[in-house]
UniProtKB/TrEMBL annotation:
UniProt function note: Catalyzes the reduction of 1-pyrroline-5-carboxylate (PCA) to L-proline.
Name assigned to this protein: Pyrroline-5-carboxylate reductase
Organism: Halopseudomonas yangmingensis
First-listed, main subcellular location of the protein, grouped into a coarse class: cytoplasm
Residues that bind NADPH: N57
GO CC terms in record: cytoplasm
EC number: 1.5.1.2
Biological process according to GO: L-proline biosynthetic process
InterPro entries the UniProt entry points to: 6-PGluconate_DH-like_C_sf (IPR008927), NAD(P)-bd_dom_sf (IPR036291), P5C_Rdtase_cat_N (IPR028939), P5CR_dimer (IPR029036), Pyrroline-COOH_reductase (IPR000304)
Catalysis: reaction(s): L-proline + NAD(+) = (S)-1-pyrroline-5-carboxylate + NADH + 2 H(+); L-proline + NADP(+) = (S)-1-pyrroline-5-carboxylate + NADPH + 2 H(+)
Listed PANTHER family: PYRROLINE-5-CARBOXYLATE REDUCTASE (PTHR11645), PYRROLINE-5-CARBOXYLATE REDUCTASE 3 (PTHR11645:SF0)
Segments forming domain Pyrroline-5-carboxylate reductase catalytic N-terminal: 5-99
Amino acid sequence: MTAPRIGFIGAGNMASSLIGGMLQQNFKPAQLLASDHNPEQCQRIARQFGISSSTDNAVLAADCDVLLLAVKPQVMREVCQALPAMRKPGQLVISIAAGIDCRSLSRWLGEDTPLVRCMPNTPSLYRQGVSGLYATPSVSNAQKQLTEAIFNAVGISLWLDQESQIDAVTAVSGSGPAYFFYLMEAMINAGEQLGLNRDTAERLTLFTALGAAEMAVQSEVDVAELRRRVTSPGGTTEQAIGSFTADQLPQSIARGMQAAARRAGELAEQLGDKA
Ligand SMILES: NC(=O)C1=CN([C@@H]2O[C@H](COP(=O)(O)OP(=O)(O)OC[C@H]3O[C@@H](n4cnc5c(N)ncnc54)[C@H](OP(=O)(O)O)[C@@H]3O)[C@@H](O)[C@H]2O)C=CC1
Ligand SMILES: O=C(O)[C@@H]1CCC=N1
């Protein structure tokens, strides 16, 4: 069997993370293509990964077994409606856009288009990504396997029973890397305020985050138990956790994630096809 050709429409942050991760696994540069309306983005992605690129999305639509839509939700309607109706037969379309639902995508692309909605995240670049997947009924088993091959190449993937769960996945893991970066920024700044130089505070924070994540993934006990094992009675951690709790940090995190999920719903409402 010849290797499936996979075309990324939109050559920005997320396309780069996915392509970079896929090339470290079994995918070859010759089977990956990217298009972007911005010629500089096309040149950048072609140079960075040694893949072909085009400023014409229609080239990918004619040539690729999988079209991976990686443009912002705000331009998704325009991009889909501008694609030629005659695309490569049996083509699978995967959208990674937050909010834009399958009903809108199938109206814009053709009702019988096999569609997968996916919510990946940027650590895919280092093959540490996690992706939530939802397939419409017209997606074949072979297309599901191909979807898994793409997203398992850059981390792990999980199929969801209901499309609505994609908004929760977006709030947890799609946006999630930014929450951890935000916490790291705060810890680096606080470390500096405690008298460390910035470089030292940064290295301590980053390796602590890496070590904690590795422990949480490898451990047989849950994260609450891991936290308890660091928290000596009457010790230093207890003071920090007590202060975070008094400041209602867990409730603040829950409110932030609810806002992210709500925004996904608003994007669907504002940008989707209501007809
Ligand atoms: N970034 C993330 O962590 C994640 C993003 N997503 C989803 O991935 C999608 C892409 O996000 P991200 O990569 O961050 O966005 P980027 O803006 O980095 O990438 C999108 C690219 O598409 C280009 N583009 C705009 N219009 C067109 C067009 N008509 N034809 C071809 N290319 C076009 C943009 O150019 P220009 O800049 O000139 O507009 C840009 O280069 C979004 O829908 C987002 O919801 C999902 C999970 C995580
Ligand atoms: O912020 C966003 O809308 C996108 C979706 C998930 C991560 N980035």
